[in-house]
# Entry
Amino acid sequence: MRQAPAGWEKPGFDASGWLETDLPSSWHLYHTALLRTTFHVEDKSRYDALALHAWVLRQQGMEIYLNGTLIGKVSGPENRTTLRAEFKPSVLKILKNGENTIAIKGRNNWRWGHRDFRVYNGGFDFNLDARLKKGL
# Structure
């Protein structure tokens, strides 16, 4: 993380020079990946909850940022593969109409690409799910 560019998790950060990759890649043990993308919200008032749904085999020290604000940490799921957690209602205040940025830091604690291990679902997936309010 000492080499991470300042502000990598904030909206407006220029990541155009970053490499794009499909995971799993054969990471070096204990290296950190910084992931970010944007998504559009038409009307945030339609939602009453946000949740993280992730496939995170062997990731440690994960941090999840929404629009530059740290909204969650996950430490050491070890061999757990599927993770689902609902965020506190206050996280909805960080969501905005228009473009939003989600940024995630993950640290691999196992060398992927081991000859005896196969990853069947793409290796490393994160979804930010929104729940519609009742009656919508």
Remarks:
- Residues 52 and 128 are 5 Å apart (CA to CA).
